[in-house]
Structures are given as structure tokens and as C-alpha cells.
């Protein structure tokens, strides 16, 4: 079940060159939203950009939803400069993340904006939560503080070495895996394609959940655009319908 | 707001376009689907098709390239799993039919006739498959033959969906009419491509796809206008309709009904807004629907 809401832009906060946060007053969607779900935003009125842009929900409480966005193209560029006012938001879309077992240890592995759905999940669950986050350069202190508040332990890598471990996240993770991994450990992975491919080789595919992006026409099952191939099966399923979260053993990345 | 094509009366002239509204019932809990003039289903083939590998979509200025590749569950499962729910919606269901061989169109049409389906749309224009679709739609003789063969086996309303890719659409339209089509659906997507310069590759995995959205509206509108002068059967206008105003453009150009495509992805409520918008326009102009159909056109 999803709705369209004309959400009021409460604030757009520039975090650094790439990242910004948007806070929207969205009373209906904020109540319906569960971790792992996303919203689809019409950037501006008219035919350009044509399609809505899907964003994972960073947090939803009271009447507000928060989105952490990286400027990567024309849509996210225009959105960043949006004046205060109302924008059309459709959501919540996609399946929520599953509720963990009581004694599960939850390891969250996020690269860049891949941290977004993981943060919302961590905020809502009571389990032991270990965060591994990777960025190109030193992340904004505000983002770090948010993650620290919702995690029991946090490991950070930056590709340029300006903060934490120097290198890619999987290298940092390899150093820690022995201490962390057990049958009770569940992994939640979200990030850029290269990162997912690297982790696919390291993580147990039957205990790893992967939150995927897809180029979407609609986000609500009618366009069949966001196809992802089933592992070991010659057919496609959809990021917006069956996902965005998949057990790694079920999909090909 | 009612329209009639052959012996079928439609509640209003606003339909959803094939491939842009799933199988037709996905949004039944959210939308008052019974208010639509008709729902055109996804293209259904004889056998299940898995579709093309991703990326299947690429956005272009005011347009969308798609290369879905007619992913569908095939006629057998469609009849079993989708048709019962579609029949309960309370509006006309037009099943879009796709075949790789002429006989497949006939076979599917026979099954649908048996299942009580009153309207079909023959897809002779999909650019995203290796066999059938657009390949058939490029050849006047084959178009006529397919329509004739289906006509022999299907008594209901036959729409034929055509495309302007590499053809003289006037000739093809006339062939479809001669073959026994009851209506034409104009137009399917226009073949195109888009390139990811940074990564030196095509944006779509298959390299090319069909362009839809407001970017193609002027082309579709002109084709409707032009074909209207050449044929005596009704036209369903489709191509970049995004609001009531653009829907009315198609009616004025000669379309008896219109189909909403890509805009469903952006605003799934759009068809209902367009129905209301056309009603409001007619009231304001003190005109009837039949008066605006082809208003700007002379036969």
C-alpha cells in the first residue's frame, strides 16, 4: 500500500560537496514507512526530469521523513536547489527489511549512500549492531554522529585515508571477520556495484541480505524495468516488488 | 463520455497503454480501476518470456527508452492467474497479443475468444524483440495476413498497434484496415538509443529500445492526424500523453480514444485526472465528445 503526498520541504541541509539531507513533512508516508523501503520523488513539476527519483528512507518519525542524498545527476542536482514548498512523494515502496531473531548479531555494511536504509533499520531494531561504513573521503561528522548513535560498534574506511582505515571497506572487513562471524551473524549489505561484487566473494550468501538499486520506471510493479536476475534460475524478478532487499543466494549481481 | 467501437461500448475514451500498467490489476487496491475506459494488458505471448537483461530503461530529455523485451508469463498462466481478477475489475479488458510467428497470434486470439475476452490489441510494433513485433509491422503484406488470420478466429474488437519505425505508416495502416482491423492503436514506441559516454557503452544492455513519453508526442499526434484521413476505422491515440490537455490534442486530431502510457509511471492516478479534465473541458466548451473527435481534421 502506498500513497502520494504533497510533502512540505522543511529543510535541505548541505553536508558537503556531494551529500545533502532533506527533511520532508509527510504525515502519511512517515507513519507507513518501514526500514528498507523507499520513496519516489517528482523532482519538479513538468516533463523534465521525466521520471521520479527513488530514494531510500533514512529515518521516519512523527510526521517527518529524512532522506540522505548524494548529488549524482541532474535530478539530485535540481532537488538540492529546490526552494521551500511542496513536492510530490509516492511511498512507501518496496518490501521492508525482515525483523531479526532476538539473538541475531546484525552487521551492516554500507558504502556511500548505501548506509541510508541500513541506518533506518539499525534505528528500529534492538539487536547488537556492528556498522562497517566506507566512503571515498572523510564523511561528514553529522553523518558519523548519526551512525554512532544507532550502533554498538563502528568501523570506517576511506579510500583516500582521510579518516579511519585507508582503503576499500572489504579490506577492513576482512581483518575483522573472524571475530564477528558466527551462525547468528546476519549481514546487510548496500552500496555501489563494485563493493557488492567484492563482498559477494567474502560473505556467506545464505546469511547475507543485499539491498539493491535498480533503474526504475515506476517503483510500484507496473513497468518491469528494474529487473534483477535470479541466481541459478533463468528468470528475472523486480527490485521494486520482490526487493529492494534480497538474500544474496537468491540473486545475481 | 461513452464511446463505441464496433459493438463494444466503453465508459469513456481513456485507456491505459500496454506495457505501462502491468497485467492490469497490480494497483487494484489503490486505484478505482472500474472508472477507466479500458485497461490494455501487457503484451501476452504464447509461451512465457523472461524479457531482456537489465539495464532495461534509460531516461532521455522528456522521454524514456525501454527495452523490457515483452517479459510476460505466457497465455496459459495469464488465463489462469490474471484473467479471473481482471474480469472482476468492472471495465473492458483489452489483451495485447504478441507472437513470434503468425500462427501464435491466431492461437492466442482463439484462447482469448474462448475465455470471453471481447477486445484484443495485436502488437505488430514492439522494437525490443528479435522476432515478430516490429519485424511484422514493417511489411504491409504480413500485417494484412496476420490481421486476416486473427479476424477469422476472433469475433470481438481487434485493435492493431503500429509503429512508425522504418515504415510508411499510412500504407501499413491501410493494410491493417483491409485485413479486418476494427481500430488502430497509434503509435508504439519509436526506436532509439542513448549512450553512457563516461563508461563508453550503451545505456541499455540490448543497445537500443523504444522511446516513449512527451518527447514523442508531436510525432504521435501528427501520425494520428494523418492516418485519420486515410482510414475509416477508429484510432486509439497514444504517445506522450501526460495530462488532459495533451489527451484532448489527440482527440481533436482524430483519435476516438486515447491511451496513457509512460505517465502512469510518474503518476498512477493520471488516467482519472484526465477523465475529469476531459469532462471539464467539454462542459466549459459546451461540446460533446463526438464533436471534438477529429475536430481539426477533414476526411
UniProtKB/TrEMBL annotation, chain A:
Cofactor note text: Binds 1 FAD per subunit. Binds 1 [2Fe-2S] cluster per subunit.
Binding residues for [2Fe-2S] cluster: 218, 223, 226, 240
InterPro entries membership: Cyt_c3_hydrogenase_gsu, Dihydroorotate_DH_ele_sf, Dihydroorotate_DH_Fe-S-bd, FAD-bd_FR_type, FNR_nucleotide-bd, PyrK_electron_transfer, Riboflavin_synthase-like_b-brl
Highest taxon listed in the record's lineage: Bacteria
Segments crossing the lipid bilayer: none
UniProt cofactor(s): FAD; [2Fe-2S] cluster
Gene Ontology BP, a term: pyrimidine nucleotide biosynthetic process
UniProt binding sites for FAD: 53-56, 75-76
GO molecular function terms attached to this record: 2 iron, 2 sulfur cluster binding; flavin adenine dinucleotide binding; metal ion binding; oxidoreductase activity
FAD-binding FR-type domain residues: 2-99
Keyword Nucleus: no
Keyword S-adenosyl-L-methionine belongs to the record: no
Keywords: 2Fe-2S, Electron transport, FAD, Flavoprotein, Iron, Iron-sulfur, Metal-binding, Transport
PANTHER family referenced in this protein's UniProt entry, alphabetically: DIHYDROOROTATE DEHYDROGENASE B (NAD(+)), ELECTRON TRANSFER SUBUNIT, DIHYDROOROTATE DEHYDROGENASE B (NAD(+)), ELECTRON TRANSFER SUBUNIT-RELATED
Protein family membership: Belongs to the PyrK family.
Name of the protein in its database record: Dihydroorotate dehydrogenase electron transfer subunit
UniProtKB/TrEMBL annotation, chain B:
Molecular-function GO term, any one: dihydroorotate dehydrogenase activity
InterPro entries on file: Aldolase_TIM, DHO_dehydrogenase, DHOD_1B, Dihydroorotate_DH_1, Dihydroorotate_DH_1_2, Dihydroorotate_DH_cat, Dihydroorotate_DH_CS, Dihydroorotate_DH_I
Cofactor(s) required, per the database record: FMN
Pathway it works in: Pyrimidine metabolism; UMP biosynthesis via de novo pathway
Subcellular location: Cytoplasm
Superkingdom: Bacteria
Membrane-crossing segments per the record: none
Residues at the active site: 126 (nucleophile)
GO BP term, pick one: 'de novo' UMP biosynthetic process
Catalytic reaction(s) noted: (S)-dihydroorotate + A = orotate + AH2
Enzyme class, first EC level, given as a word: oxidoreductase
Annotated binding of FMN, by residue: 18, 42-43, 96, 123, 161, 187, 213, 239-240, 261-262
GO CC, any one term: cytoplasm
Residues that bind substrate: 42, 66-70, 123, 188-189
Cofactor note: Binds 1 FMN per subunit.
Keywords carried by this UniProt record: Cytoplasm, Flavoprotein, FMN, Oxidoreductase, Pyrimidine biosynthesis
E.C. number(s) listed in UniProt: 1.3.-.-
Function as written in the Swiss-Prot or TrEMBL entry: Catalyzes the conversion of dihydroorotate to orotate.
Database matches in PANTHER family: DIHYDROOROTATE DEHYDROGENASE (FUMARATE), DIHYDROOROTATE DEHYDROGENASE (QUINONE), MITOCHONDRIAL-RELATED
Similarity field: Belongs to the dihydroorotate dehydrogenase family. Type 1 subfamily.
Protein name in UniProt: Dihydroorotate dehydrogenase
Name of the gene encoding the protein in the UniProt record: pyrD
Amino acid at each position: 500500500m502506498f500513497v502520494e503526498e504533497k510533502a512540505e520541504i522543511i529543510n535541505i541541509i548541505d553536508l558537503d560537496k556531494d551529500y545533502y539531507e532533506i527533511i520532508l513533512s509527510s504525515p502519511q508516508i512517515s507513519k507507513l514507512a518501514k526500514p528498507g523501503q523507499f520513496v519516489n520523488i517528482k523532482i519538479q513539476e513538468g516533463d523534465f526530469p521525466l521520471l521520479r527519483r527513488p530514494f531510500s528512507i533514512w529515518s521516519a518519525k512523527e510526521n517527518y521523513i529524512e532522506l540522505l542524498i548524494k548529488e549524482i545527476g541532474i535530478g539530485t542536482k535540481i532537488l538540492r536547489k529546490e526552494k521551500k514548498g511542496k513536492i510530490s512523494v509516492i511511498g512507501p515502496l518496496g518490501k521492508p527489511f525482515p525483523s531479526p531473531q532476538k539473538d541475531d548479531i546484525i552487521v551492516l555494511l554500507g558504502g556511500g549512500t548505501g548506509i541510508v536504509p541500513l541506518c533506518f533499520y539499525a534505528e528500529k531494531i534492538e539487536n547488537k549492531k556492528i556498522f562497517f561504513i566506507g566512503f571515498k573521503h572523510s564523511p561528514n561528522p553529522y553523518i558519523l554522529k548519526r551512525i554512532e548513535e544507532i550502533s554498538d560498534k563502528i568501523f570506517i574506511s576511506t579510500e583516500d585515508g582521510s579518516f579511519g582505515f585507508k582503503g576499500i571497506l572489504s579490506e577492513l572487513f576482512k581483518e575483522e571477520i573472524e571475530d564477528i562471524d558466527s551462525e547468528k551473524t546476519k549481514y546487510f549489505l548496500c552500496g555501489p556495484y563494485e563493493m557488492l561484487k567484492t563482498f559477494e566473494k567474502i560473505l556467506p550468501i545464505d546469511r547475507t541480505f543485499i539491498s539493491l538499486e535498480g533503474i526504475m520506471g515506476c517503483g510500484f510493479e507496473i513497468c518491469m524495468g528494474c529487473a534483477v536476475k535470479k541466481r541459478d534460475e533463468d528468470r528475472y524478478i523486480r527490485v521494486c516488488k520482490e526487493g529492494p532487499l534480497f538474500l544474496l543466494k537468491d540473486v545475481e549481481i | 463520455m461513452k464511446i463505441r467501437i464496433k459493438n463494444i461500448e466503453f465508459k469513456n475514451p481513456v485507456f491505459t497503454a500496454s506495457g505501462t500498467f502491468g497485467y492490469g490489476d497490480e494497483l487494484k487496491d489503490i486505484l478505482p480501476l472500474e472508472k477507466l475506459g479500458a485497461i490494455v494488458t501487457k503484451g501476452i505471448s504464447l509461451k512465457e518470456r523472461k524479457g531482456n537483461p537489465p539495464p532495461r530503461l534509460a531516461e532521455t530529455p522528456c522521454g524514456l527508452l525501454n527495452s523490457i523485451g515483452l517479459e510476460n508469463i505466457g497465455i496459459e498462466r495469464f488465463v489462469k492467474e490474471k484473467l479471473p481478477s481482471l474480469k472482476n475489475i468492472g471495465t473492458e479488458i483489452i489483451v495485447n497479443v504478441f507472437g513470434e510467428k503468425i500462427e501464435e497470434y491466431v492461437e492466442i486470439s482463439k484462447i482469448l475468444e474462448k475465455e470471453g475476452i471481447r477486445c484484443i490489441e495485436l502488437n505488430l510494433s514492439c522494437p525490443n524483440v528479435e522476432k515478430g513485433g516490429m519485424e511484422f509491422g514493417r511489411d504491409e503484406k504480413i500485417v494484412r495476413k496476420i490481421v486476416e488470420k486473427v479476424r477469422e478466429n476472433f469475433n470481438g474488437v481487434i485493435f492493431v498497434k503500429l509503429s512508425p519505425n522504418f515504415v510508411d505508416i499510412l500504407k501499413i495502416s491501410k493494410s491493417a484496415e483491409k485485413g479486418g482491423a476494427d481500430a488502430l492503436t497509434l503509435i508504439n514506441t519509436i526506436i532509439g538509443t542513448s549512450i553512457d559516454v563516461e563508461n563508453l557503452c550503451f545505456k541499455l544492455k540490448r543497445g537500443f529500445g523504444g522511446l516513449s513519453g512527451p518527447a514523442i508526442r508531436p510525432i504521435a499526434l501528427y501520425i494520428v492526424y494523418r492516418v485519420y484521413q486515410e482510414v475509416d476505422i477508429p484510432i486509439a491515440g497514444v504517445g506522450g500523453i501526460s495530462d488532459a490537455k495533451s489527451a484532448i490534442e489527440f482527440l481533436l486530431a482524430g483519435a476516438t480514444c486515447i491511451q496513457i502510457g509512460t505517465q502512469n509511471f510518474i503518476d498512477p492516478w493520471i488516467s482519472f485526472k484526465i477523465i475529469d479534465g476531459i469532462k471539464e473541458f467539454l462542459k466549459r466548451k459546451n461540446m460533446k465528445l463526438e464533436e471534438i473527435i477529429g475536430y481539426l481534421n477533414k476526411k
